[in-house]
Amino acid sequence: MILHIDMDAFFASVEQAINPRLKGKPLIVGSRESKFHTVVCAASYEAKACGIGSGMGSAEAFKLCSNLEFVAANQSKYIWTSEQIFELLKAYNFELRYASIDEFQLDIKDEPDPENLAKKIQKEIFETFAITASIGVAKNCMLAKLASKINKPNGIIVLTETNLNEILARTAVKKIAGVGEKTNQVLEELGVKTCLDLYLKKPYFLEQHLAKYASNLYLSLHTTEAFDLAESESMPKSIGHSYTLSRASKNPQFICAWIRLLSEMVGQRLRQQSLVSNTTHLWLNGPENGNFNQQKTFQQETFDGYEIYLRALKIMPKFGPGMPKIRAIGISCSHLLQVNYPPLFNEQKRRGELIKALDKINNRHGEGTIYPAVISIAKA
Fold it and tell me: 81-90 pLDDT, tens per residue?
């Protein structure tokens, strides 16, 4: 059994927890400090009730809600909180992994009372951080993630053989991770409107209409999986982070801000495990163009989040008037090596000492307290 934890309106909830004045109020977190000229990174549930969502322009958001509160995004708060939640979950002694900055997965194996476990985790997260989480439990990661989204916010759903069909029958197929607007439209035309409709389809039917994507989707829904303990204890083949936006966006500043945040998280994990990488992989997904997958191998290895970000920008397709909307973003590093040699050049030594100083500050005051400035998209 997999237990999937999905934090509720994570960025906005963190801001409301830090500033009690914002609690219970409609709030947006902007990608830039310009209140009326930015993009919504996150919206509180009070703001969502007004029709506001991620990817929306802030000017449009203020038209929908005149008493809307605004806070500029501060990634240090979100990275630090994410890392602290991860540390909290370690104490439960299950195999644990990140799904994204605000999602975590535990392999709870033969836990006799998964619902009670979910309640304990939910309660401890709220008491520690004053934010809520929704939790799903199921036989595999895909279904557990789906279950966590069905009863948001602060919900718990345990999918079993007894209730699986009933719950899937009342859940729209677009709730499944990876089913974007285009795929959803194709499925609806085929009469597949609920998750149960999709779950009961045969592989050959899906392959006929969704090609290669279908087999992965079918296996993700039906497999019974567990984390590989032996693999988790050995050096990983890659390290990455991804995030699915609640709404597709084509705003370059908003997308690059997310790439910067995910790159820094990957760099931190590389340094924590004393690893370097010379291959950076960028993944973008959107309803208009499907998946963009591109990777590039560079001559020099790195564990610097800022350098990973610059490399991702070199991979990324150029922005332009016809740029398609982006719904999900992922950054990963592969070709990993243990750091077992000193830097060769003075510039590398200086950069290494700077990163050590940054890590020391962040370890003392919270992850992401200080980090390199982001260069402009034009220069990138």
Answer: 988 999 999 9
Give pLDDT tens digits for 305-341. Answer: 888 999 999 988 776 666 778 888 889 998 888 764 4
Which residues form the catalytic set? 103
CA–CA gap between residue 295 and residue 134 (Å, rounded) = 33
What are the structure tokens assigned to 325, written together?
A: 């909307």
Can you give the pTM of this predicted structure? 0.67
Distance CA 367, CA 76 (A): 6
Q: Residue 115 is encoded by which pair of tokens?
A: 């619902």
Whole-angstrom distance, CA of residue 116 vs CA of residue 347: 53
> What strand order describes the sheet that includes 2-7?
95-100, 103-107, 2-7, 133-138, 156-158
Kindly compute the dihedral angle of the four CA atoms of residues 281, 56, 186, 151, in this order, to the nearest 10 degrees.
90
* Helix, strand, coil content of the chain in percent (nearest 5): 45, 25, 35
**Nearest C-alpha neighbor of 302 from the set 237, 363, 352:** 352
List, edge to edge, every strand of the sheet that includes 290-302: 238-249, 326-338, 275-286, 290-302
